[in-house]
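Milestone M4 deliverable, item 7.
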Amino acid sequence: MARTKLIGDEVALGLNQAGGLTVSNATVVRVHNGAGTTATVSIAKSTNAGYADTSTVSIPNDSVEFFEKSGADLIWASAITVKAAKVGFTG
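Output delivered:
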């Protein structure tokens, strides 16, 4: 059974691509939605020309999801109460 290894502090995600974060260049991000309602999380793929190929998903209130991304990819959410932390998996 895989376990979550905490690598970085939890941070509030920005509200749009301009406020998006790499979450310390994380390749695996644990996201918690504490918005009180369903929130969206978006990830934009890093390219040599900037960012492209944005993907967005909905996350129910008070739930946790794990996202795998490239280190330079940006992640943001629709509410500042959505928080993310850089993690890894062990076991």
